[in-house]
Amino acid sequence: ITTLRDTEAQTELAHYSLRLYQELEQETGQATGFIRCGSIQLAMDADKREEMARGCAMHASLAAGKPVQVEELETLADSLGGGIGLDNRYTFKMVQALVDDVVLVTEEDIAAAIRHAYANEQIIIEGSGSVGIAALLSGRVESTGTTAILVSGANIDMALHRRIICGLET
Known about the structure:
about 5% strand; two-stranded parallel sheet; about 45% helix; 2 strands; 7 helices; mainly alpha; globular
């Protein structure tokens, strides 16, 4: 969610997507496996989990009840980093209303998800696109049946990707 731009059109698109999954479940009587996660927080390693819980923009903003400024830290999921904007008008309110839980994943979880996607799904994904897989594989999110994970983004340096796949990086 932190990568969403603060526009009314994108907020409406997110609301439409949520309604679409709900309507599919109602019409078919079958669970879509859609889980509203909305925000995934990242930690460089297990020791930094607490530090990142204090430093991640959406997590810190939800705790404060308003958008707050945070320090950007290096991560494999770099497009998820950074602030949400102190004058944020749409995304923060949408997350407050729709997010049920905040999930922390480590750099190791992200690297494992990138490896999994390459080895098992034959796709190349960037760190930010892998966090849903990371949350599921690490057991931080449980699957209660058929589960769909939105995977987007293949903007990863191929030398870094090769190091991750070979187990030389995180």
